Amino acid sequence: MITFLDLSKRLARRGHAVTFVSTPRNAAKLQGSIPLELAAHLCIVRLDLPGVDGLPEGAESTADVLPKKVGLLQKAFDGLAAPFERLAIGAVLPPARRPRSRGSSTGSSSTSLRTGSGQLLNSIRPSGP
């Protein structure tokens, strides 16, 4: 994770817009390590893991689960495919050209806020049961 953040910072220093996607707890850890001068180019986006029966509440990494529960964590990460797709589509297509939600009346909830250092922090919650 740190290696990817270092790469993100290098790209941002060169003027590239970078979106770093991570789970909420990891995003919170990373948020404070982004220099203010990079805030305009480097955005950390949180994707909340969907709940999976048997997965401990708040588990976001293999350090949070017993080895026999790693499969449940993988299942939760597989559940991020649709929210990540919506994030990616929203980043490249203007609103009028974005596909409409298929088969779900609930969609996803999305919030944005500015942190104390002025960075934009997005939170996208998966839709579904």
Automatic annotation (TrEMBL):
Sequence ranges of Low complexity compositional bias: 102-118
Ranges where the record places region Disordered: 95-129
SUPFAM superfamilies reported in the protein's UniProt record: UDP-Glycosyltransferase/glycogen phosphorylase
Polar residues composition bias: residue spans: 119-129
Record-given protein name: Uncharacterized protein
Biological classification of the source: Eukaryota, Viridiplantae, Streptophyta, Embryophyta, Tracheophyta
